[in-house]
Every structure is written in C-alpha cells, then in structure tokens.
Amino acid sequence: MSRTARNLLRVLERERAFLRAGDIAGAAGLLERKAELAGTLEREGADPDTAARLREAARRNLPLLEAAREGARAAEGAVRAIANGVTTRTYAPDGYGTDIGSGRRRIERRA
Q1: What's the pTM?
Q2: Taking the chain, what is the end-to-end CA distance rounded to the nearest angstrom?
Q3: Is-contact 44 3, C-beta < 8 A?
Q4: 61-75: average pLDDT
Q5: Rounded CA gap, 62 and 10, in Å?
Q6: pLDDT tens readout for residues 5-40
Q7: Which helix (H) or strand (E) holds 88?
Q8: Dihedral over Cα of 88, 70, 28, 11: its sign
C-alpha cells in the first residue's frame, strides 16, 4: 500500500471516528485533505487490494455521512420552526422535557 493510500485510509478512519462521536465539524474539517489525497491517489493509481480497502472504508462511512446530513436538516427545520413562533419540545440527557419557543409575542391589531 502506498503512502498516499495509507494516509487516505487514516483520514477515512478519522472521519468515521468524528461521525460516530457526533463531531460533524471535525469530519467536515477533513474534506479538503480527503479530496487532495483521493486526487493524488487517482493520479498514482492503486493496486486492486488497496482500492478495495479504501472503497470499503468509504462505504462504511456513507451511512454515517447520510445520518449527519439528515440530522443537520432536522435541526435546521427545528430552528426555523422556533424562529416562526412554534413551540418545540426537547429533552435533556436526564430525560426531562422542556418546551422551547421563540419568545415572540403576537401583536393584536384592533380597528
């Protein structure tokens, strides 16, 4: 396995660790390096065993990346709902629920 392939495999393993820990920012910080290594590896070429290992590592990360994307979309929707005055129920790690809202007050207009 080439040095580039080993480095890419390490980056994919770090990405998986970040995603499993819920550290989306950490995983996102690896994107540029991952793309750089993939481009270099594409130019250098890789033997079939190495290519298979890298494909498997990337395939293992895909469901985690998709879950992170869906979680970010759900969070964005919740923030928008709260900003629009919708009360949302959230739960703390201890299991207690709390209602959160925007705190907006509606102005009653009278003629």
Answers
A1: 0.72
A2: 78
A3: no
A4: 94
A5: 16
A6: 999 999 999 999 999 999 999 999 999 999 999 999
A7: strand 88-91
A8: positive
